[in-house]
Design a protein that fits this description.
This protein is α+β, with helices and mostly antiparallel strands and 133 residues long. It is built from 4 helices and 4 strands. The protein has a 4-stranded antiparallel β-sheet. β1 (27-32) and β2 form a beta hairpin. The longest helix has 17 residues, at 5-21.
């Protein structure tokens, strides 16, 4: 099962609302469970360089079925996944990529957000992911 366009649009809208609440501009990407692009929004004034980062955060979360924040400690020097960012055409393993699950708990996609601090990125991504039912 994959995220629908309607679900992806709802996630983007929720993420945009959260970004506005914390006074930041974001690039927001939604992918399906196979990390294929479903929807994307670049808020007015959001960094152009964050377009690619948001997509890589979303696909990283989808491919590894975990939030990128959970990957961060595992990719540090001396840790088991050190240098994994260089695989799969480039991954992003810092916060801002969040898996999206259906009501049964299956991963149906992921959201990737970039444009501010990693803490803000994660907060906005969580806001988008949690509205999907």
């Amino acid at each position: 099962m994959n995220i629908t366009l309607a679900q992806a649009e709802a996630a983007i809208n929720a993420a945009k609302i959260k970004a506005a609440e914390i006074n930041t501009k974001m690039d927001i990407c939604i992918v399906d469970a196979g990390s294929n692009l479903v929807a994307f929004a670049r808020m007015d004034g959001a960094w152009l360089g964050s377009v690619d980062i948001s997509f890589k955060k979303a696909k990283t979360a989808a491919w590894f079925t975990m939030d990128t924040a959970a990957l961060s400690p595992l990719v540090q020097p001396g840790k088991p996944l050190y240098n994994i960012e260089h695989s799969n055409g480039g991954l992003i393993t810092f916060p801002g990529g969040v898996v999206i699950k259906n009501t049964e708990g299956d991963v149906i996609g992921a959201i990737g957000v970039s444009g501010s601090t990693v803490e803000d990125d994660h907060e906005v991504a969580v806001a988008g992911a949690t509205v999907v039912k």
